[in-house]
Amino acid sequence: MIWRKEKKRDQSNKKSGEEAGEVMESFITRWYPDILRYCVWHAPNMSAAEDAAQETFLKLIRYYKEEVEKGKNLRSLLYRIASGVCIDMWRKKSVSEVSLDALAEYTSSEGSSRASGYNVPGEIGQEAGDYEQVMSDMEMRRLVNSLPEEQREIVILRFSQDLTLREIAGIVKLPLRTVQSRLRSALNYLKRGLEQEQEMENKL
User: Fold this and answer.
1) Which intervals hold domain RNA polymerase sigma-70 region (predicted)?
2) Do 43 and 86 form a contact (C-beta atoms < 8 A)?
């Protein structure tokens, strides 16, 4: 009788473990493309962006595995982890602009990567079609990279990740009004920069 109870308990634990694994797989599949896209903005090349994205999920699995398996909304946390990973990885390195070749590699990427034993999708080009179009303008990238860090991060989250201002406020831990103000200042700066670039082209 005791043996049957233990066997039933083992089967129940196994089922729970399988369900938890499926939840984790689903979570990674859902968010890996977005996090990789975010890391591309901060990385010197595609390989570094992939390393940062995988390290982000390794940290999430290591420290927040239970929360993920319970189905909690960890989107803001995920971006904060990614931000910290990017800062740590390139704090002592000179980070240059991401080349268009690296971006093309990103949008046509095939295959798969792994994070702590969980499958990470590689075929994400179709989901990043609009992103490729936006990122194709090198001058815009240069202007964005010239923004102050506190403004640049908000612009990246808003336009490369399509997050709402309220979601961004939660990620960067700032009041909504502050986020709105910084985004407005950044957009004004970008507008002036683009106008200056256009004027220079017209003079040529």
Assistant:
1) 28-94
2) yes
